[in-house]
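Kindly review this protein for my students:
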Amino acid sequence: MEHDSSGSRRLLIKRDSLDRFKDKFIVIGSIAEELGENATNLAEKLAAVGITPQPDNTLVKIYLKKKLKDLDIQRIKSMASYDTKTGRKPSYNQENVSSLRVKNLILLIDKHGGITDFTRKFGGSEGTLSMMLRERKSFGNLAVRRMEKKVGLPEGWFDSRNNDSSKFK
């Protein structure tokens, strides 16, 4: 239909057609708002568990409601490791680190979902941890013992080579 004053075209959608669409589909923004999640991260988490948008070539991710019916929301919200095309990648890894303590700190932080999730659970500064992980800040005896106590690890855990990651809280 052409608009009278501007000559631009408008697509008119009947109310019943829109209602049928809303009954069958939901956009990622609505799901994210309901769950209190970032829409982009949520879409990546859904993709990681095999739930893809329908159709998958749209700018806004649209999902079939029936595919979301049996979704384990707690699992999705707690996902820490999933493929992502967004965000910064960690600037640290165990191969680039010489300190056993820092290698164990990386293991511990990764087990808890990354720096942000770790600091949410146990407190501390993301910036300080990041510098420790890149060996730009000392992870000395006092910091090590405080962290072991805060996280509930036995004294000396960070100085041990054979750490059992199943013992993490």
Q: What stands out?
A: The mean pLDDT is 84.
